[in-house]
Amino acid sequence: MFIVTRYFRVSVVFLMVMAIVATYSPTGAETVPAPRSIEKLRNDVQSLREQATQLDEENQGLRNMLRDTDDNELYLVVDTESNRLEMRQGNTIVLTAKVGTGSRQVVKEDRGRSWYFESPMGSLTVLGRERNPVWIRPDWSYVEENMPIPPKNDPDRFVPDVLGKYAILLGNGYKIHGTKWKHLLGTHFTHGCVSLDDDNLEIVYKSVKNGTKVYIY
Amino acid sequence: MQSYVTSKTVWLLLLFSILLMGADNVEQDGEERGKLLEQQKQLSVRIKTLKRQQDYLVFQRAMYASDSKYLIINISKKTGQLKYKNRVLKDFHFKRVSGGVSSLTRGALTLTQKIEGTRGRNILVFGKSLVLQGKNAPANELEVTIPRFALSKKDFRSVYYAIEPGAKAYIMR
């Protein structure tokens, strides 16, 4: 009886020690001071899994939305500070060329009219294309040269062979065209149009179409 | 004597079986807990990455709807882009001039000031987070602790005149 009782006592003490040891989790002890219930941990992981799935779906939706806006169309960029034109498609630069842009000069007329020669800034669109364009001299051209201003349809206003072989129309009289003053390309010397050398003008003319975007900044 | 041995054996068997049952449970629980904690860690990292991606995607969507030009600045590649909607207008490179870049966290910044310096030495100030400048711009106008990146003179002129206060820059790391 004594022996049984002794064994019983020893067993109880041993079991208590083991119970304490069993509640200690070496893995959990590294990161979590108080051991969480396994059930709570399962719920936490499940919740994180759902959150990740939701974020993944949302991101995919956003990516699809942005992909829809990416038409991969060719477009032109004119930097009026460095007087450079780039023809781009996506992230690829198809062509780079020196250009002439607005002189940023003002011409004043005695009657009070004045003109500020700046290239049009912003997002423009190719509205048309011309071969062998004819320059229709505006009033400022006569004012600039101290010449009398002729009537609107005076033949003197129609000047061929000064805009090069091609012109790309941007609206409001602004064009991308050729120039006689090729040595000035890379500077601000035009009356607002964008001037290009003949070779690059031909490439650009043949590459763009009506609706092509032109960004001038 | 036989009764003593039998009794001892029974006790020992009982004790071991209880101990083994407990040990098995503890081992299983520990194994699962380990796996769950590892999953939890991996999922937390993944969520952080997805949130970062989402922040940039949301920024791109906002910029597509906006009529303002903006910058994308990649610190690790030391390259940048001037963009309008989804179109790249200009690519550029830059050098770090001063200030630690560790304080520059990924995300959007706003151009707060365009400071015209003498002889074209202008700077673009994005709050207390970043200064963009051309080469040879003076370094003493703002605290040197603010990260400063220098673009080539030509590139900086283009960027300087292309954006206005309120324009955004997105920092990529």
Quickly describe the structure.
The complex is a heterodimer of chains A (217) and B (173). Chain A has five helices and 15 strands.
Describe the structure using short key phrases.
heterodimer, A: 217 residues, alpha+beta, L,D-transpeptidase catalytic domain-like, 2 domains, four-stranded mixed sheet, 5 helices, 15 strands, rod-shaped, B: 173 residues, nine-stranded mixed sheet, 2 helices, 28% strand, elongated
Describe the structure.
The complex is a heterodimer of chains A (217) and B (173). By secondary structure, chain A is of the alpha+beta class. Chain A folds into 2 domains: 2-69, no CATH class; 74-216, Beta Barrel (L,D-transpeptidase catalytic domain-like). Chain A contains 5 helices and 15 strands. In chain A, strand 1 (74-79) and strand 2 form a beta hairpin. The N and C termini of chain A lie far apart (103 Å). In chain A, 22% of the residues are buried. Chain B has 173 residues and is an alpha+beta fold. Chain B has 2 domains: 1-65; 69-172, L,D-transpeptidase catalytic domain-like (Beta Barrel), CATH 2.40.440.10. Chain B has helices spanning 2-65, 153-162, and strands at 69-74, 79-84, 87-98, 107-110, 113-115, 123-126, 130-134, 148-151, 168-172. In chain B, strand 5 and strand 6 (123-126) form a beta hairpin. The radius of gyration of chain B is 31 Å and the shape is elongated. The chains are: A alpha+beta (217), B alpha+beta (173).
